[in-house]
Amino acid sequence: MPAQSVKFYQVGSRAVGNRLLDAELRTEQSSADRRNSITSGHRACQGCGEALGARYVLDTAARVTGGRLVTVNATGCLEVFSTPYPESAWQVPWLHSLFANAASVASGVAAALEAQGRTDIRVLAQGGDGGTVDIGFACLSGMFERGDDVLFVCYDNEAYMNTGVQRSGATPAYARTATTEAVGPIPGSRPGQGKDLPRIAMAHEIPYVATATVAELRDLEAKVEKAMSMRGPRYLHVLVPCPLGWGSAPAETVRLARLAQRSGLFPVFEAEHGEVTSVLPIRDRIPVEEYLRPQRRYAHLFNDPPRTDLIERIQQIADRNVARYHLNPHEAPRETPLEISHEEGA
Amino acid sequence: MRRQLEGSRAIAETVARCRPGVIPAYPITPQTHIVEALGTMVRKGTLTSCRFLTVESEFAAMSAAIGASLTGSRVYTATSSQGLLYMTEAVFNAAGLGAPIVMTVANRAIGAPINIWNDQSDSMALRDSGWIQLHAPDNQAAADLHVLAFRLAEELSVPVMVCVDGFVLTHAFEPIDVPEQEIVDAVLPPYRPRQVLDPDAPVTIGAMVGPDAFTEVKYLADHALRSAPAVFERIAAEFADAVGAPQRRACCVQDYSTTGADTVVVALGSVTGTLRDVVDSVEGVGVLTVTMYRPFPAEQVRAALAGARRIVVLERALASGAGGIVTSDVRSALAGLDVPVHTVIAGLGGRPIGAASLRELLTRPGLGDVTFLDLREDVIDRELGREAVHETDRETAYETDREPVAERDGQPAIEFDREAAGEFDRELDSQPALEPAGEFDREPAGEPAGA
Amino acid sequence: MDTPFAITLGPGSSSVNRTGTWRTERPVYVDRLPPCNQACPAGENVQGWLYTAEEGDYQTAWRQLVAANPFPAVMGRVCYHPCETACNRAQLDHAVGINSVEEFLGDEAIRRGWVLPTPAPDTGKRVLVVGAGPSGLSAAYQLCMLGHHVEIRDSAARPGGMMRYAIPTFRLPRDVLDAEIDRLLALGIDFRPNTPVTDLTAEHGFDAVFLAVGAQLAHRAYVPAAQSARILDALELLGDTAAGGRPLLGRTVAVYGGGNTAMDAARTARRLGADEAIIVYRRTRERMPANDIEVTDALEEGIRMKWLSTVKHADVGVLTIERMELDEKGVPQPTGELEELRADALVLALGQDVDHTLVDTLPGVRVEGGVVQVDGHMMTGYPGVFAGGDMVPSARSVTVAIGHGAAAARNIDAWLRGTVATPEPEREVATFERLNTWYYSDAPETVRPRLDAARRVSDFAEVTGRLDVDTALYEARRCMSCGNCFGCDNCYGVCPDNAIVKVRTGHGYAIDLDYCKGCALCVTECPAGAIDMIPEPD
């Protein structure tokens, strides 16, 4: 008989909680007395991935810091839906200044705390992908290179959702947005554009860079905990599906985040001082089509006849991620980097 | 104790004695000497409990200042010109959030064309950003005003800009008494923030405010700002007592020889010194120095100008398409009084404002609405003539001094006055990067220019 | 702090904004019927006791189990576990080894001497149970639990019926059987062995009767045979063997029939020393009534199968076999092609019939197709006389019999109280499509150890081994808790509006309708499919 281990827990570590696990092994989110750093009554859309991601991140950060935490928030959905006068959803100290400057404001906060000798209080800055990869990029890069003691969290929903779904530097190839309509031979966002901010962050050789999704809670919490155990600039990039902008059912938010990871389109990994140190292996890889199809922003790929050429191009991107980060334990590492075709729309 | 000091150095030493907790800094001429000096003090440990943050832009500098200020630290930064404009969004934001930051603006022209020399276009552009604006007439005042600025900012929870004419003051060596530490400490108690990021008392700072309350927020901010003149004069008196020098008591506006004067010249900044010299030799002319420009001390201006029969506003900035900026404020302050207010645009982009030109101007029998001092008429005529195709349409809105400048005072004012500009020769010499011109907009980071 | 107006707000002040008004649908927790429970003829709450076993609380799990079935150790060995056939996990990897966990719990109970619950106070009612097979014992147990006095009579010397006299010991060791029956009888049930009941009208002093005499008459098919041909019934063979006898069969034994009894007989023949045992069956393997497990076990033990064959004639040492063909309807038809098959003995395993002479004298009782007819409440046409198990129309398995006994007990209890048992409310089935199987850990089933074939045929040792404490825990935790909350906190965790709160009652969670926006993320992410969306009431 194979030596079965009692470590088997029915839902293992995938579910939020697990009544079979010891309390100390459960997630922060499963706790009846979790902090709810962003509390009820906020005005996020139904099924908002960003509201979920922010609570996941901040609750853990607040726990591991014993509540000695202050936050800075860039302008964006998260800021707008959480703080319309006279109601704030935040239970943690929270400061919003501008769209572009969250990283710099956080640098100032960290500097003030250091000057005051209160470095027990930790600083967490957060923003959407626009406030991170586009307009806020210079400030973020400056925060990185100076070595400021800030964890910056990007909640990436892959477009400017607050202003009505316009393309950002994080919008993926062929995704329809209000500024990249799904018309013409190359519908949606152009392929070959956009920024890979986690890799750019790694190029700063900062202590910690990690990606995560709202579908892998335990992984996300572990990364927040690890990030908060370190000093210096740290960057966490969390994929947060947006039902409004992606054209998906509110109930599908977590599932889509999961499919993004399982397809290879969103590699989940962590890196220290510029080197990848671990990846979340793809448990059961799916073709990108399974991820794309439920999203109306990709509906133009599935007309009659479908744009199999473009779907294949997206598949190539996923394949390259899988090869680059060795995401699939069932696929042997490639000896040569995977090429993706660079012809427009091909 | 008075020492022969560069203006920037005096400002830096004064700021240091104000015990700032955080100084985000980004280099730009002619502000740079101030933050260089402060950075060195932090490095050397003479300025303790202070974090000096070398940020990547002025936008980041003001943003970091906001963050630090709302975390309960006293925050200082300095900028100039393009840098001030580059941080504009954050400048407004600091005021909106009530972050009592003190910032020196070493006044400099705004490009294009790019120009590193002094005028006040930069701070004028941000006069309505919600900050208190103080303009230093000389370097002693420049130093003193920083102490007052911190006290004023923190008492009102409003940020304060101390405007100092670039090069003219920042790079000028003068005997200056940097306020002693005990005096500064006496006038400036430790910072007690009105609101602060604190895990022990969490608040949400920077909420979104809609039509239901935005007007009230703005009304209250304006109300707070309008209390500044009275508070400023109280603090200034306290400071003057502390230093034991009544002549260093700052006022929102300072009159000079205005009693019985037929003409009063209104001006901001270092030019008021030249003006005082000039009016000493011109009968019936006085000077009104405006130190607090925002909020505009309208009542005090009106009181000071009540007896004058002619007002001349000397402006180091131009509201293109409109004329004088300060003039508008002065006219509003004098509403209902039948007194002509003339605008003189002078000293743009570092052009020296010579005493001779001023004397000629003030003794000229007739003065138009807007006069450009020392305008090179030959150049204007030539250039306008070159575009003669549309000449009939090209009636300038301004009544300019059409006399050839070269004929006045018998000296060619069109020549760039190297002597007058000599005070910043050192600056120029120290900057081999002057060529190509694009590079002196921002000094190369990490290179101690002029050190 | 004298904070500025509007720009600065108090923490958590959004709670005054009741976002529940956005909602057009609301989530509700449901308890769907897990397919295992639905499939269990004995009416076990399989998912329920697995839930407890998952926590390692085996005694409580056993108590939940025996609420429906007092023979877990027996059933863990002989049940054909339709629960596992129905198990949703089979669509993911392999069905949960429910049967093996049941056996483990049953054995643990015997080993540790766990006792059955205390029966309810005496109602003063007396019930006669005729037949001490699984159905009768099950009914007696349930009736006893309800506080009724039960007397069981059986014509045999020992209780157990077919469990004792038909199932080979290599499938069901008798010490296990004895332990579970003794524990049951020890509740205070009056068991009378060697007491056949012949005339119910002569019985007095009982308020109700439950008939469970089974189907113990071997079905007789006419097989032309030579006088000295060795022909015997499977039940006779199995009964003799179970009682310790070693009937002489010869070197080659043919078993005629395709049911489970045929398999047991063939396997027994091997253990009795037959070098060769051959099953002769007139249809194909696919159409064989025997359970697949039994067929597989038999094949492993070297038993040969002769499909599409009938025995035309039995002679000494040799059988004449006719090859059959399936017609369009799948009915075997003779082809006239004959062959000879060497066989020292022919064992007939052609089914069993009910001895219904007992009810023939009872007015109102109908017998159709050889079995006793009962109504929806398991009562015969004679008021107060109920019947169940193999003697009524049924699938005839021990598990079904146990279920009959329990159902009969419920109906008898209602009858005794002058009411009618109300059926359990219908519940919607927890189908596989409703599950979010992503969350379950990858886990192949635990295969119980088995004796290898060579070792098996050498004696009557039990073929299949048992789980241990750890593997039983593992196997229990493979349960996906279909349609029933198992406390994974997913709903609580994935709600972007913190609109799910933990409570100590019911499902452990409640929807905070003040804030629930109706996004249904909780529904999608519930692994067990235990939340439904329903339209918001007007």
Report on the architecture of this protein:
- By secondary structure, chain A is of the alpha/beta class.
- Chain A has one domain: Rossmann fold.
- Chain A is built from eleven helices and eight strands.
- The model of chain B is unreliable at 401-451 (pLDDT under 50).
- With 538 residues, chain C is an alpha/beta fold.
- Chain C folds into four domains: 13-31 and 485-535, Alpha-Beta Plaits, CATH 3.30.70.20; 35-114 and 441-477, Orthogonal Bundle (Fumarate Reductase Iron-sulfur Protein, Chain B, domain 2), CATH 1.10.1060.10; 126-215 and 354-416, FAD/NAD(P)-binding domain, CATH 3.50.50; 247-350, FAD/NAD(P)-binding domain (3-Layer(bba) Sandwich).
- Chain C has helices at 35-39, 46-54, 58-66, 72-78, 82-86, 98-112, 134-145, 162-165, 174-185, 234-242, 260-271, 292-300, 357-360, 398-416, 453-456, 469-477, 490-494, 521-525, and strands at residues 8-9, 25-29, 126-130, 149-153, 190-192, 208-211, 217-218, 231-233, 252-256, 276-280, 304-306, 309-315, 318-326, 332-342, 345-348, 352-353, 367-368, 371-372, 385-387, 500-502, 509-511, 531-535.
- In chain C, helix 12 links the parallel strand 10 and strand 11.
- At the A-C interface, helix 1 and helix 9 of A face helix 16, helix 17 and helix 18 of C.
List keywords for this structure.
heterotrimer, B: 451 residues, alpha/beta, Rossmann fold, 2 domains, six-stranded mixed beta sheet, five-stranded mixed beta sheet, 16 helices, 36% helix, disordered C terminus, C: 538 residues, Alpha-Beta Plaits, Fumarate Reductase Iron-sulfur Protein, Chain B, domain 2, FAD/NAD(P)-binding domain, 4 domains, five-stranded parallel beta sheet, 17% strand, globular
